[in-house]
């Protein structure tokens, strides 16, 4: 998986881009897992990207800060493959779980404007899903249900988040 595509997609879900010409060039991504963000930062450093992970007192989350005009431009100008978009969506906004007496499910809850992109990516990968609209149409829940369909999903989509990888590996034997 191309790390630049992945960071671009991840920033769309759990981050922001500060791109002020002549002033500031940075991408900031938040997560509760320091290990997850440090792994991404270490991989980016292999390509000469300046980055760092720090703790935020405000919400007890960690932040990955990527800075520098060239690095930010390289990330923002990368294209997005469907499997990379889905991987970032699951890592950032996803919930992977086996509920008691129910099939394994992958749930992604996003604002409705991003849901269309995820739906298109799942369709391109021939993954069946269910779409549920929440909170007056502002949020959309996309659910991939069943062991077989999730095995198909995770053979193509390579997630990185350590907690989610552990759950997927345990229930789907991948």
Automatic annotation (TrEMBL):
Stored InterPro entries: Homing_endonucl, LAGLIDADG_dom
Residue span(s) of domain Homing endonuclease LAGLIDADG: 14-76
Single GO MF annotation: endonuclease activity
Entry superkingdom: Archaea
Signal peptide (UniProt feature, chain positions): none
Any Pfam family hit: LAGLIDADG_3
Name the UniProt record assigns to this protein: Homing endonuclease LAGLIDADG domain-containing protein
